[in-house]
Queue: 3 jobs
Job 1
Amino acid sequence: MKKKTITAFVCAIILVAAAVAFAHPPKAISAVWDASNQMLNISAEHSVNDPAKHYVLNMTIFQGGKQLLQKQYTSQATAQKFQDSVALKGMSSGTKIRIQIVCNIMGSTETEFTIP
């Protein structure tokens, strides 16, 4: 009985390690400002095998130390990348924001963007 328990425990550790090896954070965030609609179009590289199980969990946008918005997700539209658009009303040219994107399995990335 003890040998089966140890074997099961070792197998569980190997499976968890394998899952983490395939998980990776999003990278290369790209942002484009649409001044006429005051929308920020955001995309990030995040290629996954199954966008219903491995996806961007949330995106947060900050200005200075203030959180402007946070969005939660339950899947990713494509297996290649994350994309979304958000309204940021009242942003003036030169305003600096920070975009943070978090993977539901492992890791996060962020970038700074200046409103043109």
Job 2
Amino acid sequence: MRNQRGVSIGEVLLVILLLSILAIVMMPRFLNVSREAKWEACRTNVANINALVQLYYIKEGTWPVNDLSDIGVNQNYFPEGALPSCPVTSAAQYEIVTTGHRVTGHARGQATHP
């Protein structure tokens, strides 16, 4: 029995401790990547909706209503039948600002994000 080698409980605890420290250090980085991806998805949604608003104006000769309800249900612009929702703030709605006819990421009065 004395010539047999094995893993002691101390070595196992040391490995668990090191893995725990690595997990604690890496977890915030993974959470930050997820948040950045959501923000980028929102910015992409705004850019795509802006392009569709411009196309709507070219085809129809008028701007869509400010809450985008007329363009949102139009199958030619959104085949899914609805505007995309903001991945950062699910309650936020995309809308058009009347000056400049550009889409914002959130309705007025709601918190914004970068």
Job 3
Amino acid sequence: MRIVLVTHAEASEDAPRALTDAGVASAEQSAARIAHIMGKAWRVNKAVSSPAVRCVQTALVILGTLSGEKLRRLDTDPRLMAARDPMGPEQLFRALADYPCEGLLVVLHADLANALPGGCRPQGCRDGWFTERPVLCILDLEPGGPPDSARIFLLEGPDGVSVFPPGYGASFKKKLLLT
């Protein structure tokens, strides 16, 4: 299954940590980038987000562009919440296993940097967290497969520049082939 993961966009430091105007604009840019990469025929069939306001708002902005008329529900999953320690791959993939479908959108926190499969340690991170947001990740995962079987096709920061680690090479990053 093809999964689109997006970290939340820029948010205010004040509670409830809602998106800033710049955050809304960057979430809109993320939606446009996803649409461009995945093609016009691709649609979000299921969406899940961390319950944090900044994640839900990011998801709603993206869904406004990508879901069309079909999707009328955004699930929230507390397993996607940010914690003191960054999320690991096992936690992320346990959550993903509960949403097996094509066209899955997941919006979560910057600790995605620590939860990527295959020991991928992207650029632009500090202590397991992306330092800039939103980050877009597109991966394929066989339903029920272990995290290390997932393949990342795209990993880019808010400026559209790859944040794959230097030298990760073709053994991990494959050309995005749309099915």
